[in-house]
Every structure is written in structure tokens, then in C-alpha cells.
Design goal:
- This protein has 152 residues and is mostly helical.
- 57% of the residues lie in helices and 11% in strands.
- The protein has ten helices and five strands.
- The strands form two sheets. The chain has a three-stranded parallel sheet.
- 37% of the residues are buried.
Length: 152
Amino acid sequence: MPIVSNAGPILSFARAGKLDLLQSVVAELLIPDAVGVELGGDLVEKFLWLGRRAVGDRTLVEALPPKLHLGEREAIVLAKEMSAGLLIDDREARREAAARDIVHFGSLRVLKRAKEQGLLVRIKPVLDDLVSSGTYIGKALYQEFLRQAGEG
């Protein structure tokens, strides 16, 4: 199944110096045009595994709540159009994806899959890198995630 992403998870992994881990888990990530603009052409061109796609139906993008960023709205619509999975961390955006029956997951699932695939021995150091580089993860979620991963 192809995977579409908004800018948030990509930027989180980039700021933490872990884009290679994200690439290892997802192999190819599709981004809509608005996300390409958010990330900047240099990042998109540098990482060939980030494929750029245009959204087909702009009216669907405009129909989503304006409180979501344009990149989030385009990512939701592109995932729906392509019957793709959606990598997105924002809670409201995830609610909109769920309402449209889009399979979605966040950065924490990427870490879980990395550990399952043997790419990580421990999740906590990478999770701490994400948090220290600016990714917000609530304290309760942080602790529960590590507990479920057998590290808490």
C-alpha cells in the first residue's frame, strides 16, 4: 500500500537526524504539492524516496476544515484518492482521516515498526531525539508507548 504524508512527521524525523530511519520503514513516501512547498524543494529533491503528487479534486481539499493546514488537507485527500495509507501526527487531521475511512498512523507507529524490523534495538533513544528536537508527545502517551514497547 502506498503511503502519503503531510510535512509534520517528515520534519520531525529530519530535525532529529532520523530521516534514514523513516525511509527504511516506509521505503517510498508520497507527498502532495502543498507539502512539497512546506518542506522546500531542496529537501524533496535531495531525498528521491519522497515522491510528489498533485491532488486531483481541489473541491475535496476546500471542503475539509480550514483549521487544518493546507498540507494536511491535501495529504488526506491524496491518500483517499490513491487508497493509500496516511502518515500524519496531528490529532484533528487524524480524526478527519478516520471519518473518511483512511488507514492512518503516526510517527510512533514508524518507531514501533522500526523495532519490529530489527532497525532499532531500543525505541527510547530515538523517541527522546524526536522530543528534544521539537516533536510534541504528551507525557502520558510517551510513557504508555514505551511501556507497550517493553521499555517502560
